[in-house]
Predict the 3D structure of the following.
Amino acid sequence: MLRTATQSLRALRTAAAPRPAALNSLPLLSHTLSPTRHYSAQPAQEATQEPAAAAQTPPQGEAADPSATKGNDQALADLNKQLEDHKKQIAEHKVRRLRTLADFENLQKISAREKQAAKDFALQSFAKDLISEIDVLNLALRSIPEDRITAADNADLKGLYEGVGLLKRGLEKVLGRHGIVPFDPTGEQFDPNRHEALYQAPVPGKEPGSVLECQEIGCASLRLSGPSHKIIH
């Protein structure tokens, strides 16, 4: 295109010799050529930039870097391993917590049993001494004949008898508040596991093996189960 413009310029110069007015159009021609030169250089510049851009941009469908892929896989494997380790630690902590709770509950139960056992053991000696005093009161009450109690001239003796009986019942209530219940098996069948025989005596009209009289009462409790002394037939 540039060569064509040059040839046209030469032809104009040759033809302009007999016509001087035609020379005025030359600057116009030279001004119209400069845009032609500008546009002709732009495609060349773009052509120069396109290979550089093509060199920087990887083609589509090109495989990723194997080393980068391997690194990502290794990082994922490490994360999965850490996750599994944390799950194991959580499971172990849960088992330890359950065992600790079970041990604590067992300790509470053992402590409660030992506390109750110590309480019963401390009460045992006191209760036996108190029951012995109740036996003495029972012997005192049985030693007074019934006709003397009901006699009109024995009001003082009757008052004393009733006072001793009131004291005996008060002591039995004290034992009852601590879970100790005295019992008198008079008239029941003899039980060697609960009774202690003093002697045997034949009594007409009584069933053999029955308890005729109780000299020392026993007691029914969780730990206190002392034998009562009986006279059996």
User: Anything to note?
Assistant: Residues 66-142 form the longest helix (77 residues). The chain is about 65% helix and 10% strand. Helices lie at 2-16, 26-56, 66-142, 146-150, 155-177. Residues 16 and 189 are 166 Å apart (CA to CA).
